[in-house]
Amino acid sequence: MSETFLDGRVKVAQPENGFRSGLDAVMLAASVPASAGQAVLELGAGAGTASLCLLARVAGLLVTGVEIDPALAALAARNAAANGADCKFLAADIFALPPDLKRDFDQVFANPPFHGEGQASPDPARAAALMDGGKLADWLKLGLQRTVSGGFFTAILRADRLNEALAALPERGVCVFPLWPKAGETPKRVIARARKGSHAPFVLLPGMVLHNSDGSYTLAAEAILRHGRALEFGN
To answer: What is the H or E stretch that residue 37 is in?
Structure first.
């Protein structure tokens, strides 16, 4: 199954069954404050959607994506080639990275598995992609570990697991950006960004409303999802 993102600028073949990337991947990519020439690591790259959306916005990045499923990693590599994107995807467990990836990156980002016990999908492939196995905190700690001092680790998370995420991240240098489905509704997703080594106090930002009352995207959401703009944290 092939899908397009950023108004057709990015084309991604995705598995017929199992987890398929969507809005979360695009919002995550828009949240990474990368600039040309930086080394970037994506943990849990799936079919490569987030990395490819990031590269469509910021040229000249050195992007490596790590995905535990060999078939998905191979699909991501084919997607990169189909989009003319100069990035590398490899099959590996993020908790057993190859020696050449056990180094610091300017930017690290992830859409970690976010379902806990009792929330498994009946689809085995989808369950494998979404179940965190009690390792959400480990994902976040590893992401920050692989980030260079002064660099950023960015993750998109289920809002109801933000307390776990904050417990795993430093007390300082972290800001959280909620994504509100509609005005007045409880957020389902938040984006957490940590600047390694920063002493800035924790900040809860106003966030963004994704949909108007009629279900259409707000102008702010359209700027990201269709026009490929960066998600500005404003902090």
So the answer is: none
Give me the pLDDT at residue 117, please: 52
d(CA 68, CA 18): 14
Tens of pLDDT, residue by residue over 3-41, are 999 999 999 999 877 767 899 999 999 999 999 999 999
Residues forming beta bridges with residue 232, ordered by sequence position: none
Distances (CA, A) of 104 to 89, 92, 100: 17, 17, 10
Residue type, 145: Q
**DSSP, residue by residue, 91-124:** E--GGG--GGGSS-EEEEEE----B-TT---SSH
Q: Integer distance in angstroms from the first to the last C-alpha of the chain?
A: 38
CA-nearest of 18, 9, 43 to 1 is: 18
Closest CA to 144 of 99, 192, 92: 192
Give the C-alpha distances (Å, rounded to integers) separating 136 from 18, 65, 74, 112, 169.
Answer: 20, 18, 25, 7, 11
CA distance 83 to 79: 6
